[in-house]
Each structure stands twice: as structure tokens, then as C-alpha cells.
């Protein structure tokens, strides 16, 4: 406990930011590798229809992640603010209450979803051809997907408890186990899409087990459990984390919106092409959550301890990092689009062409997306929930859905691919013109 506080109080901001950032971003990328690997193994071992089915089921994975980020970020922000105010018992109570809330919410979703698999598959856009693989994957996610959510929630708290590297180790082992079991279940045991889903879950189990020793470490805050729960504490956790729920749920809206638009315009071929884009997006998009998870412990602590200069420096570092990350991902997508499509074993020339064109247009959005994440995270981490919520609602729902309705009518299929990039560019302009300057003024 004292080591973490001393680091936050005494270490240079730049050194501390990257101490959190690199494990966070690699951890997020490793987490998203699980779904990416499912797509690669299914594409090669099951076929293009199986790949489309897994993509249609993927939004449920997004919902699980959204809930874990909602409760995890909300609880961990309160945890770090409490530590900044030297209130260790409230910090511990934030963890135990967050864990209880997460368990209750995921329990309800799992039961309801498992009892209505075909209905949910239909809502997600499955047709007669893709219904079987979609329900196979959904069945495993609804029954056991809470394991993946628990892994993410524990990772967030343990990072705030001063051990960001442990989260990366957990997610790294998860990916290794997932690779091995995907090969065995799909190519050796011929378990198809069901095997891919099961491999992901069992990898998550290993990842959760990695965290267990942390709670017996005498040098951390979470070596003791407190249950000083209250309704105001629960409300704070839910309110502070709400923008993270909206942000990740926005990914759900994006996937479902794109799937429905592509099905209407191009049929199963279009869904398969978007499956490739969506797998890559799921992998790369979570890198921006790495910036969020790096910023949050620092901003929350500095806000709680009234350190404005450190807050300002953290914000500037996050902006630069988001820009560099966005440019890097765009360049990778533009230059390596054909090779990225080949990873998924797609052979149909029409689908390959659709996917390559889609990647090159869709990845333009990464040039702008980081700015929204930086300012959403800043507002969330200092407890200004409504400001963070407004940014997320605008970018993920209002602006995106308007463009998704309008652009395909104007530009055809290219309009579908350009919907996300233009929505993100619009929000970046709004933030630079109306938000960024005001935030900087408050930190003078």
C-alpha cells in the first residue's frame, strides 16, 4: 500500500504513466487476441459460415466486457480516490461491493440469455445458414462468459492496487492456453465453433487463477476484505463506471449496426467480409482502452490529492500517446490489409476484395478515436460523469447512427465502411473546439 502511494506521490508523471500504460495496453491487446484467435482458427478449421457465426455472436462478448469495465472502472476509480484521501477501508469496500454487483448483473444476463439462445441469435442478425454456429458460440458465452468478465474486473482493481504487470501476465497466459486449446478442440477433436468458445473460456479460467496470490500479498491494499457497504457507495460505483459501459456498449451498437447494414446490402458475403474487419477492430480498438486504464489510476489519485500540475501532465501525455497509437494502427491496416485478410483463411476473391477495401477505409477512424477516449476517461476519473457520458453518447450512438443511416445511401458500400471514421472525426473536431480548452483552463 505504501509503495503504491509513494510512487504516485513521488515518481515523475511520464515514468509513472508508461509504467501503467504498457502493461495496460498489452493486457488489453492480449485479451482481444482471444476473440481474434477464435476467428483465425474457425476460419481455417470450420469455414467461412462458421466465421460469420462467431462474428454474429461476438456482441455478447462485448456486453460481458462492457459490464466488467462498467463495474470495474467505477469501483476502481472510487478505490484510487479513496487511497488518495488515505481511506483504505473505503477502498477495500469499493472492491467487495463491485464484485458483488458484477456477480448479480452477469448472473441475470447469463440465465436469461441461455434460455433464449435462438431468439438472441435472431436479434443479432443470424439467418438459416449462420444460426447453428451462432447459437453454438452463444451457448458457451452465456453459460461461462462471466469468467472472462471476472478476469477483466480483477485486472482493473489489481492494476489500481499497484501491480499492473500481473494483469498482463494473466492475459498472456490466457492467450497461450487459448491457442493450444483452439488447435486441440478444432483440428484434433473437430468440435467446431463450440470448441473455439470453450477454449476461450478455459483460457480465462487460467487467467483468473493467476490473480489469486495477489490477495495474500502483505504489501497491497486488497490483502484485507471490507464489507462497509452502503447505497451511496453502490451508486457511486455504478455512476462513475457508467461511461465505460456506454463506451463498450457503443462497440455493440457498431457491430450490430454494421452487420444489419452489410446483410441488407451484400448478404452473407458481406457479413463474412465484415467479420474479418470486426475481428481486427476488436483487437485494435481495445488498445485505446489501454490508454483509459493507464490514465484512470493516476487521474483519480491526483484528483483526490489535489495535484493539478500532475493532472495536466498526465492529460498531455495521454493525448500524444493516443495520436501515436492511432497513426500506427492506421498505417498497419492500410499497408497490410491483404495479409491481414489472409490470416482468416478467406479464399473467395469477392470477399477478400470487400474486406481489403473495408479495412483501408474503416481504419481511418483510428486517427481520431483516441481523443474521445482521453477526455471521456479524464471526466470519468475525476467524477464528472455527465461530461464523460455526453462524449460517449454523442460518438457511439447519436453521431454514429445518423451517419450509418445517411452515408450508405450516398456512397454505397464505401459509405458503410466510412461511417465509423467520419463519426470519430466529427467528435474529435467537437472536442478540440469546445472541450479541450476548457479542461486545460481548470488545471491552471
Characterization of the model:
This protein has 444 residues and is mainly α. It has one domain. It has helices at residues 2-10, 13-45, 48-84, 88-114, 117-123, 131-144, 146-160, 164-188, 192-211, 231-304, 308-342, 349-362, 366-381, 385-411, 413-442. Helix 10 packs across helix 12. It starts with a helix and ends with a helix. The model has no long low-confidence stretch (mean pLDDT 83).
> How many DSSP helices?
15
**Helical/strand content category:** mainly alpha
Largest sheet: none
Classify the beta-strand content into a percent band: under 5%
Secondary structure: helix percent: over 70%
Detail the poorly predicted runs.
none
* Quaternary structure classification: single chain
Helix and strand succession? HHHHHHHHHHHHHHH
GO molecular function: antiporter activity; xenobiotic transmembrane transporter activity
Transmembrane segments: 16-37, 49-73, 94-117, 137-158, 165-188, 194-216, 237-260, 280-302, 322-341, 361-378, 385-406, 412-435
Pfam families: MatE (PF01554)
Subcellular location: Cell membrane
Quickly describe the structure:
By secondary structure, this protein is mainly alpha-helical.
